[in-house]
Amino acid sequence: MSVPAWVTRNKETPSNIVSLIKTAKVNGCWIFHERHQRFYTPEEFEENWDKVVQSDGKVNNFKEFKIVNPMYAVRLCARWVDIANQRQQEVLKKLEGYNGEFKKKA
């Protein structure tokens, strides 16, 4: 039987990180890094926490991570796509009224 990585790394992994990973696993959730807008499965976060969590005494970004339902991720990504499409439509509308020529430099 394979021992989960968080058990063997428990001594070097801060307790708040272990708790976050365990809570996400038990509830079938993901971990969302709000500032970077990135979703991690508990397993991905377990493998990468030391690269994304910063805690050097002065700076601690642990509050940037929250546990979310995977459907939240799907809905949020759909909203991001809607916003990107809206911005693209605004640019295309500006382009329609723009009268300029694009020529290759000789």
Description:
By secondary structure, this protein is mainly alpha-helical. It has a domain at 5-69. Helix content is 52%, strand content 10%. It has helices at residues 5-8, 15-27, 42-52, 70-96, and strands at residues 30-33, 38-40, 65-68. It has a three-stranded antiparallel beta sheet. β1 and β2 (38-40) form a beta hairpin. α2 packs antiparallel against α3. It is elongated. 11% of the residues are buried.
Give a quick precis of the structure:
With 106 residues, this protein is mostly helical. It has helices at 5-8, 15-27, 42-52, 70-96; strands at 30-33, 38-40, 65-68.
**Rough shape?**
elongated
Q: Outline the low-pLDDT stretches.
A: none
How does the major sheet shape up?
Answer: 3 strands, antiparallel
Q: In which order are the strands of the major sheet placed?
A: 2-1-3
* Distinct helical segment count: 4
What share of the residues does DSSP label as strand, in percent?
5-15%
